[in-house]
Amino acid sequence: MLFLTLANEQQRRQIQHERGPVELGRGPEREIPRIIVEDPYTSRDQIRLEELPSGEVMVTNLGGAVSVVGGAKLEQGQARALAPPARLSFGCTTLEIGMIPTDEEPQDSSLQTISRPRPRAAKPAKLTNTEAPSVETLTQWFATLLSVQRAAAGSNEFYGETARAVVELVGLDRGLVLLREASDWKVVATSGADERSAQKFSRRVLNQVRAEKRTVYQNFQNGGDVQSLQGIEAVVASPIFDDVDEVIGVVFGSRDLRTTTTRGIQPLEAQLVQLLAGAVSAGLARVAGEAEAARARIHFEQFFSPELAQALERDAGILAPQERELTVLFADLRGFSRIAERLGAHATFMLLADILDRLTVQIMDHGGVVIDYYGDGVAAMWNAPANQPEHAQLALEAAQAMLEELPALNVEWAERLGGLIRLGIGLNSGVSQVGNAGSKRRMKYGPRGHAVNLASRVEACTKLLGVPCV
Questions:
Q1: Is 91 left (phi over 0), alpha (psi -120 to 50) or beta?
Q2: Cis peptide before 33, with omega less than 30 degrees from 0?
Q3: Which residues contact 57 (CB under 8 A, 6 or more apart)?
Q4: Helix, coil or strand: residue 270
Q5: CA distance 325 to 330
Q6: In this structure, are strands 66-68 and 111-113 parallel, antiparallel, or unpaired?
Q7: How far apart are CA 228 and CA 207, in angstroms?
Q8: Is 259 exposed, middle or buried (0-12, 13-18, 19+ CB in 10 A)?
Q9: What global pTM score does this model have?
Q10: CA–CA separation, 266 and 285 (whole Å)
Q11: Contact call for residues 26 and 44 (beta carbons, < 8 A)
């Protein structure tokens, strides 16, 4: 049975497909069952999947380019047999292909499980384990969990702390942390293991954890066959989740049955391993959230004042499209063509960078938002996205401050230019539509409408009237 995870900006679905071929694409279903992909960059007929008797999956590209993560591209019409788990990408969509064992496949009766890890948004469950640990033991557990979370997530220290905790806190003989890499598992940290045994783990157990999204362990409490998947070990494996609750790694532990009288992994030990895996998931989610916030902050600060950038970081919803009164400013460097011919490319761009940097500082210092840079000019606005009751006054003060930058610029550049730098600035207030005028891939927050066009025409009037600002 195929287990598919489909993800793009519009969808995040998990699908189980029992038998026969299945197709994916934007177009409607035909003779073969179809999974509709809500991605405009995906072909109407994109790919066909079919499980093979060998356990591999035949992937046929019916449309645009398909990339196999960790492998080569599939061109249109090309087919390839892939061993699950595998990951494909097409358009702006990723597709993970996994397998769920059927009833006909042999099952390992020694593997048991505990309650599935709860999503981060769920309410915490009450502890019901009858094996009550001592206060000292509980203190040690929580101190270890805190040390894991304090370590820098994604670093060797972070994963190393986790692997050590499997040995030192849980009391197992070997601890590993494994992450998904392409279609395989990679060991990123070990404890209590030599170089040879560090690579010894059951991929079947890991794939089961990934498919079921829950911890599995070997207890042998019924006195059954104590020969585990590793032959001489009892194992426990617990999932590490990403921010959309997909399994991206596993915390793996084992106990050597030759050196202990225990019957395997105890339920409370499995719970502790699951707690450690949860700490890893939380740490990775925290770092991912911090990185996303940093990217958003850098992006916002390119256009907005630091104060407004902080407000947007707290609530990006204020960038939603709306209609409101704005004051719009256009500023243009006079005689730019003549200047470019005189200076050449290198000096021209140095001049533009100097001028636009100074003008941008004045816009932002007076509460304005940079709409865009165009050629030798800049456009800005006030009263969006945040309310500014005195938006017209702020824009006028910014225009005056921009003109006051000219003397310093001319001291530095007039000799090389053979003349003075002059600006034309036009301002207009009026009702406009404002929002993201760019694309999903590249934001361009700005206004549209008659008031904006009029501001541009007003700037052009400065040439006819012979004045720097209208």
A1: left
A2: no
A3: 2, 49, 50, 51, 81, 82, 83, 84, 86, 97, 99
A4: helix
A5: 17
A6: unpaired
A7: 16
A8: exposed
A9: 0.45
A10: 29
A11: yes
Structure tokens given for 395? 């824009």
Phi and psi torsions of 218, nearest 5°? -115, 120
Percentage of the residues of the chain whose pLDDT score is greater than 90: 34
In the chain, DSSP finds a helix count (H) and a strand count (E) of 10, 22
204, HSE (Cβ side, Cα atoms, 13 Å): 10
Strand, coil or helix: 264:
coil
> Cβ neighbours of residue 350 under 8 Å, at least 6 residues apart?
none
CB 424 within 8 Å of CB 334: yes
pLDDT band at 323; cut points 50, 70, 90: very high
Average pLDDT of every residue of the chain: 81
pLDDT 10s digits, 227-250: 444 456 889 999 998 877 889 999
* Separation of first and last alpha carbons in the chain: 71
Q: Which two tokens stand for residue 145?
A: 């969990």
Write the CA distances from 310 to 317, 368, 380, 437, 456, integer angstroms: 13, 15, 19, 22, 30
Task: Give the bridge partners for 61, in sequence order.
Answer: 47
Of residues 240, 247, 254, the one with CA closest to residue 282:
240
Two tokens at 30?
């035909």
425 strand-pairing partners: 331, 469
Helix (H) or strand (E) holding 394, with range, is helix 391-403
Question: In angstroms, rounded to a whole number, what is the distance separating the alpha carbons of residues 403 and 418?
Answer: 20
User: DSSP letters along 421-470, please?
Assistant: --EEEEEEEEEEEEEE-S-SSS--EEEESHHHHHHHHHHHHHHHHT-SB-
**Is residue 54 pLDDT above 50, yes or no?**
yes
Per the listing, tokens 């426990």 go with 236
Do 214 and 116 contact (CB within 8 A), yes or no? yes
Residue 14 main-chain phi, psi, to 5 deg? -120, 125
